[in-house]
Amino acid sequence: NPVAFSPSRNTQQSEPVLNVETDDTFLFGSPQFSEADIASSSVTSQEARLPSAESPGNSPCLTPPSTGEEESCSTDVAVLHTKIKKLINEKRSNRCQICMDSYEDPLASIECWHVHCRKCWLRALSVKKLCPQCSAITPADKLRRIYL
């Protein structure tokens, strides 16, 4: 009499045991963020205003080059295009995967080791206590500043 779907208990565990009550202070230092940081982040994001536009008098005036300067200008433009492409490629390599901006203040979670900018981490944790990338449970005291 074969049993096709019999639940069996394996004495060995296939997944490692996650101990959520350990103190990570010895390994990762004291907590650098708390629930108060999340609350203050949501208040400041609501009060943020767009920067005012510059007055038209402060903007540089561009005049078309004369015929003698056209060759030097085209060379300058080509050099500037090359520099811009280089800077764009550098910026793409070090950017937050949530807001897609370059890192100003990168933070890493010691739970899942994902790195995002401070603004995105605190905004995500103010809505849900989850990593915005992998949805791992991440309290604010598990965030650490990193230097890239």
UniProtKB/TrEMBL annotation:
It comes from the Eukaryota. One of its GO terms (molecular function) is zinc ion binding. InterPro entries: E3_ubiq-ligase_RNF220-like, Znf_RING, Znf_RING/FYVE/PHD. Residues 7-16, 55-66 have a biased composition (Polar residues). Keywords: Metal-binding, Zinc, Zinc-finger. Residues 1-21, 37-71 are annotated as: Disordered. Residues 96-135 form the RING-type domain. One of its GO terms (biological process) is protein ubiquitination. PANTHER family: E3 UBIQUITIN-PROTEIN LIGASE RNF220 ISOFORM X1. This is RING-type domain-containing protein.
